TrEMBL record:
<feature type="transmembrane region" description="Helical">
    <location>
        <begin position="48"/>
        <end position="66"/>
    </location>
</feature>
<dbReference type="GO" id="GO:0016020">
    <property type="term" value="C:membrane"/>
</dbReference>
<dbReference type="Pfam" id="PF04117">
    <property type="entry name" value="Mpv17_PMP22"/>
</dbReference>
<keyword id="KW-0472">Membrane</keyword>
<dbReference type="InterPro" id="IPR007248">
    <property type="entry name" value="Mpv17_PMP22"/>
</dbReference>
<protein>
    <recommendedName>
        <fullName>Mpv17-like protein</fullName>
    </recommendedName>
</protein>
<feature type="transmembrane region" description="Helical">
    <location>
        <begin position="151"/>
        <end position="168"/>
    </location>
</feature>
<keyword id="KW-1133">Transmembrane helix</keyword>
<dbReference type="GO" id="GO:0005739">
    <property type="term" value="C:mitochondrion"/>
</dbReference>
<feature type="transmembrane region" description="Helical">
    <location>
        <begin position="127"/>
        <end position="145"/>
    </location>
</feature>
<comment type="similarity">
    <text>Belongs to the peroxisomal membrane protein PXMP2/4 family.</text>
</comment>
<keyword id="KW-0812">Transmembrane</keyword>
Amino acid sequence: MLKAIRRAGEKYPILRGMATYSVLWPTSNLVQQSMDKSRDKYDPIETLRYFVLGTFATAPTVYVWVKLAGKIVKGNLLRHAILKAGLEQILFAPVGQTQFYLGITLLEGRPWDQCVKEWRDKLIPTWKVAVCFWPVVQTVNFAYVAEKNRVVVVSVASFLWTIFLSYMHHIDQTSLPPFLRKTGTAVVEAKECRQEEAGEASDNQYEDTSASINSNCQEFDSNGHEVL
């Protein structure tokens, strides 16, 4: 039985990727759930959604990208790895992250407009982190890790990355650190803050004016004569 599975994996490499992601993604989600202090209990249905998305969507997509990247950039030297990592963030990362946000929200049964809103709100913040994370991982992996251990490094990095994706899926846009928020969101919040400050200043000015009028009125008696 094990030999048959091994032969199938060697003959169809995509099956190895699907098997890996069938464990990697649900496990990452379980870790994220355990780190989420707002949860009272685990949500097995959510973990099942990560299993479905990781196994039947992400794994095949990654497999296709790896094959395509190998044809675009041929070579296994460090410079080739850096080039592949750069191309990955330009060509593949937006596709993979779009697949994640739309896929996971659709599996939750949300309306299409809500799915698109989450994708629109979180794609750029997620991509900002990916640009900082994956090129460093790939460069260190090819520069300092033995070839036989590179798959392990990528697997660990993928595990951590999926935890981050699960975190991003559950966090609200306004709760993100300022440097990860969309520019439009930051501008709107700054504008609202300025409007609130202007409103408070206007209220304070009104109160000061009212107090001044009351003070002046107290200097006159009921007949309109100035009180000495």
